[in-house]
Amino acid sequence: MSNKSRLAFIIANLLAICSPAAFAGVTISSPTGGTLQGPVNYQASGSTSCSKGVGSMGIYTAPGVLAYVSNGNQLTTSLNLNPGTYNTVVVAWDNCGGSATGAVTITVSNQSGVHVAWPPTNSTLGSPVNFVATATTSCSKGINSMGIYTAPYKLAYATGGSSLNTNLNLSPGTYNAVVQEWDNCGGASTTPVTIIVGSAFTNLQADNGWGMAGQGPPDFINCNPCGPQVTFSMQQGIKNPSLSGSATQFNIGGTGPYWDAFFNNKLIGDGSSHGMLDQNHSLVPSIHNFSYDVYFYGTNLGASQALEFDLNQFFDGMGFVWGHECRIAGGNEWDVWDPVSAHWIATGVPCYPNNKAWNHLTLQVERTSDNQLLYKSITLNGVTNTLNIYHNPASYPGWYGITANYQMDGNDVQSPYSIYLDELTFTYE
Hints:
The chain is built from one helix and 32 strands. By secondary structure, the protein is mostly beta strands. The chain folds into three domains: about 5-110, Immunoglobulins (Immunoglobulin-like), CATH 2.60.40.10; about 115-195, Immunoglobulin-like (Sandwich), CATH 2.60.40; about 200-429, Jelly Rolls. The strands form six sheets. Strands 17, 19, 20, 22, 27, 28, 29 and 32 form an eight-stranded antiparallel sheet that branches. Strands 18, 21, 23, 24, 25, 26, 30 and 31 form an eight-stranded antiparallel sheet that branches. Strands 2-8-7-4-5 form a five-stranded mixed sheet, covered by helices on one side. It is globular, with a radius of gyration of 23 Å.
């Protein structure tokens, strides 16, 4: 490294150490360290009490080597790194002249391997199923091709090169799939991924079955109307911003601190919006696996105390309520709901959705064979965190069915804000 580069890096680090006390810091949600195969996904956020906010963020892969930079207080990118160990540093620069850093050490493997970015193993999905994977090899001649086996000796897809991204039409059922690479030296490696393909309700944000209500402290009982404490509404058919051309805008406002806007869709069973009343009570008890897949967009996410995404199943007096809460003003962490204690439980998983951008969220849950709630995983913007958290169901007599919920929580001054949902898919099996 030249003296000039070394001096620039030392100055950058001194600035980070000696920056104004206004800077709160850098949070790196991905990677978390360890041995990885490229490309390496980075997700980080910077926070500051500087009134002008965070101006930009960057990644140093070595002293003086600024590998990536982006504007704003959020950073999401993938870096192609050669095999080796990297003491990477993520830097945030605010608009008051301050800076802060976060460090993470990673080792990029030089051995052959297949990295399946999607789908997560043991996930429940609707058809078609999107497969995204990359491969690396120590063969000097590189990767020749990649493929997907959906069953032994059943090669469902193959493509040349070291990456694949394709959709497969699969019938409902469980698949012990294998993604394989073949290199140009006669070698090969595989990664298994088990998936459950189920039935799905698609584009639910455009569905006509949504009900809505307000909730407020101390008991958070549904009301509609609720008075000036909370206002709420939804508007369907939004074309901009939208991915499908038919997003739905959800709104909250009012005067009461910490009031919520609750939106609910009864999918199967009592009051089904899709005519699936299950009058002989045979379908609902047979379902064990669920996923909630949605894109959401906000222009003022900082005004939200939290965003909630819930899946619910009720039968035989039991209530399986899989509640997921992304605390934003509440601390940028995912909580899950314990139905018995009726409290939120912190998971330790960070939640930093991107403002003024589409965020992709996938929740995977299961009702186990002994009737426990299993929170399996949360995937936000390509980063999957495995939970494996179990809770018992609550007593819930008098209702029967399966529902999907979405909720917006107001902050301490009930700042108004809007969230757009699109391509909402609820899958069950």
